[in-house]
Amino acid sequence: MRRQLNSNQRRAASVLLGLAGVCAAIMCILHGAGPVPVQAQPKAEYVDPSICADCHQDIAATYRQSGMGRSFHRVDASDRTASFNTHNTLFS
After folding, report:
1. pTM of structure
2. What is the pLDDT of residue 92?
3. Which of 9, 12, 33, 43 is the most exposed place for a label (fewest CB within 10 A)?
4. How far is Cα 53 from Cα 64, in angstroms, rounded to an integer?
């Protein structure tokens, strides 16, 4: 069974809740509740994996064995294994 509050207890509870709200508002004002400014990120640049391999030989060796590592090189005509002359189907 819930206990009923008398008028003095309700008034005290209202005052305490009001004070808690005022304290929260003051804390927000003092600590700047506004949005945090976003810092511009420097431009991302990629380097040749061989540069990293100088210091990280173990990682570079296992990376070269992965699918991504084997595909990371400059493409030239000798790399092309697919024939684009026959059996070309366009799906639209």
Report:
1. 0.32
2. 60
3. 43
4. 10
